[in-house]
Design a protein that fits this description.
The structure holds two protein chains of two kinds. Chain A is an alpha/beta fold. Chain A has 13 helices and eleven strands. Chain A folds into two domains: about 130 residues, Thiolase/Chalcone synthase (Peroxisomal Thiolase, Chain A, domain 1); about 220 residues, Thiolase/Chalcone synthase (Peroxisomal Thiolase, Chain A, domain 1, 3-Layer(aba) Sandwich), CATH 3.40.47.10. By secondary structure, chain B is mainly beta. Helices cover about 5% and strands about 35% of the residues of chain B. Chain B has one domain. Chain B is globular and about 45 Å long. Classes of the chains: A alpha/beta, B mainly beta. Chains A and B meet through helix 4, helix 5 and strand 5 of A and strand 4, strand 5 and strand 6 of B.
Chain lengths: ~375, ~150
């Protein structure tokens, strides 16, 4: 499905700690903004796709609220950070197959004011393994990813300062992103002084709990070339698995699902890893950025910390990473804000944080931990 | 055996049809694994199918109760349920097989002093007070093996 579909519109609500509105309203506002961005109207939409974890309005309610009379494609996935790229990939497949012509993809969540990942207001996850961990007080994502981080740091020699430099680098990017929730500079002293959530992860290793809606419009490549925005095409997509932390014939906690997915993704795109101009790497927790730099093959094992510290993920570096400030500093919309930033970079519309001449962007979802699922996209600037 | 630790509203295990016998055994202070009747591979948690050979037939086998630290956290943030912070949660790799990983509590310092990846552990069982009419409950707590 290489370059069969494109992302022609992106839309956001603001990122905040309290949206003051329902997830339905967040979804509708983001979708409307994305359609405006694309120069399309409600009547153009014939498909809907979202992902959620029991914390957002069902896709069918949104489809009705959009007034879609003949809904030709729908996807309403149970999933969090693993699923964002997957729903865009599936929407692209729906377009490529002819099932639908124009699919809106969104994620709408009040993850700070209503349904915090830490547990407040949230039912137990829909995971059979939860029974084996919750009685020990192991119930939330930061705790689970802290377990992964400890094992990975032990195996690779990564230090707490290495984690800190990821948070610092993303904060630096966020200074040039007016959408970002956290824009004031962060230094290593402030990082090290931040309190532990679950050792080895500190507060600044963790993403921002955020209220937000983000939407994308996916349509055919042919139509993308005719619409108002510079065309950004889906060059390749890959779904993957990963380590759910339980027995899965995977003894090694320290190799993420990205290691298996990456070769398939680059092959499907017909590119070399070195062709990638920037990467939007799933960063709910700092160590995931380092792990993915290694498991997607940009760094040798154990070398990602020095790569970040040397400024290689900053503007002008070898691989700019999370140019919007990521989930750590822009906000945590579960993943679609990574896709949206990739689109903006490939349009060349990122202003002070623009990666010069960006033609190919890697966008990743969570590399398979806990959920056992992963996904990723290669986006490319398309010709007219 | 360890005395039950004081707890706030740590959720009881949401046992289900696949896991019920495993939890019953744990309450008897037995740590069980499934062994495939066809290829003898071990597995945990309870699953109907061997993911190595595809066989459906299996039997319970008692584990040795020995393992090693695969990872651990020291929880510092109050998430609203669970033990009082700080507390340790271990991820234990059982000696029986490389991919048998399971969470558990730590019968040691609340700040995790003495833990390191690869340190040898021995299982202990912690009885929990079951609500009236509910089946008995126990959890795993691991202590450092004597060197």
């Amino acid at each position: 499905m290489r370059e069969r579909a494109g992302i022609v519109g992106v839309g956001y609500t603001g990122f905040s700690k309290n949206s003051g509105v329902s997830t339905l309203t967040l979804a509708l506002r983001a979708i409307r903004a994305a359609l405006d961005d694309a120069g399309l109207s409600l009547g153009d939409v014939d498909g809907v796709a979202t992902h959620r974890v029991g914390d957002s309005v069902p896709a069918g309610v949104v489809a009705h609220s959009l007034g879609i009379q003949d809904l030709r494609y729908h996807l309403d996935v149970f999933g969090g950070g693993s699923a964002a790229c997957a729903i865009v990939a599936s929407a692209a497949m729906a377009v490529a197959s002819g099932a639908a012509e124009c699919v809106v993809c969104w994620r709408a969540l009040n993850a700070r004011s209503e349904f915090r990942m830490g547990g407040t207001g949230r039912a137990a996850p829909d995971a059979v393994e939860f029974q084996y961990q919750a009685p020990y007080g192991l119930a939330t994502p930061p705790q689970l990813f802290a377990l992964v981080a400890r094992a990975w740091m032990d195996a690779t020699g990564a230090s707490e300062e290495d984690l800190g430099h990821v948070a610092i680098a993303e904060r630096r990017w966020a200074a040039d992103n007016e959408r970002a929730m956290m824009r004031s500079p962060l230094d290593l002293d402030a990082y090290l002084a931040s309190r532990f959530i679950a050792e080895p992860l500190r507060l600044y290793d963790c993403c921002l709990e955020t209220d937000a809606g983000v939407a994308l419009v996916v349509t055919s490549a042919e139509r993308a070339r005719a619409l108002r925005q510079p065309p950004v095409l889906i060059r390749a997509a890959a779904h993957g698995g990963g380590h759910n932390l339980y027995s899965n014939r995977r003894g090694d906690l320290t190799r993420s699902g990205a290691a298996l997915l990456a070769p398939r993704l680059f092959a499907a795109a017909g590119i070399e890893r070195s062709d990638v101009d920037l990467a939007l790497l799933y960063d709910a927790y700092t160590p995931l950025v380092l792990m993915q730099l290694e498991d997607y093959g940009f760094c040798a094992r154990g070398a990602s910390g020095s790569f970040v510290r040397a400024g290689e993920t900053a503007l002008g570096g070898a691989l700019p990473v999370n140019t919007h400030g990521g989930f750590l500093s822009e906000g945590y919309a579960h993943g679609l804000n990574h896709v949206a930033e990739g689109v903006a970079q490939l349009r060349g519309s990122c202003g002070a944080r623009q990666v010069a001449g960006a033609e190919l962007a890697l966008v990743t979802s969570q590399p398979g931990y806990v959920s056992g699922l992963s996904s990723a996209l290669i986006l490319g600037r398309g010709g007219r | 055996m360890s005395a039950p630790a004081p707890r706030r509203a740590a959720p009881p295990p949401a046992r289900e049809r696949d896991s019920e016998e495993w939890w019953q055994a744990l309450a008897r202070h037995e740590l069980l694994l499934q062994r495939c009747d066809a290829c003898a591979a071990l597995r945990w948690p309870a699953r109907a199918l061997c993911n190595r050979c595809g066989a459906l037939a299996w039997s319970w086998q008692r584990a040795s109760g020995r393992g090693r630290v695969a990872s651990w956290i020291v929880n510092r943030h109050e998430f609203g349920s669970g033990p009082e912070s700080p507390y340790v949660v271990l991820y234990v790799r059982l000696d029986e097989q490389d991919d048998l990983l399971l969470p558990g509590g730590f019968a040691g310092p609340a700040d995790g002093a003495g833990l390191a990846v690869g340190r040898a552990l021995v299982a202990e069982f912690e009885d929990l007070a079951a609500p009236a009419g509910e089946p008995p409950l126990a959890l795993l707590r691991w202590r450092l093996a004597r060197a």
